[in-house]
Amino acid sequence: MPTLSQPFVASLARALNAAQVPCVLWGHCRGAGVFKSMTDAVIAPRSHILLEAYMRLYARDHGKRVGTFGFAMIAYIQLYVDADGFLDANLLPEPLRTFYKELQEDKKPLRQWTLELKDALGVAEEDDDSDDEY
Questions:
Q1: How far is the C-alpha of 113 from the C-alpha of 87, rounded, in Å?
Q2: Where on the tree of life does the source sit, at the highest rank (predicted)?
Q3: I want to staple 63 with a disulfide (CB 3.0 to 4.6 A). Which of 18, 57, 105, 130 is the partner?
């Protein structure tokens, strides 16, 4: 399971703050789901809904840049949201609940986990349609 280094997370937090993106990576407000915005309304979906969306995004776009983003966000939710107790993974629909548990337990190689997730969600394997070169 890839992990994010503290310098990376700190750099990301500074960049988001400099861009005036209204989010908090850690601190007293993290997980509250509400914060003041001087401009538009802010929608904060429940964590299990967000995790479901990222898992589906990753399965659909694995091997593409947006799929890589999806997996990074799955890792973020696992490392911060879930670790802080703000995720009830039991609210995930099947088969995503089972796949998230398998990912946490690190029972399978990531490639095998990905292929099985795609199969369970009915996502067809694409032929060399990747925009990443890895």
A1: 21
A2: Eukaryota
A3: 130
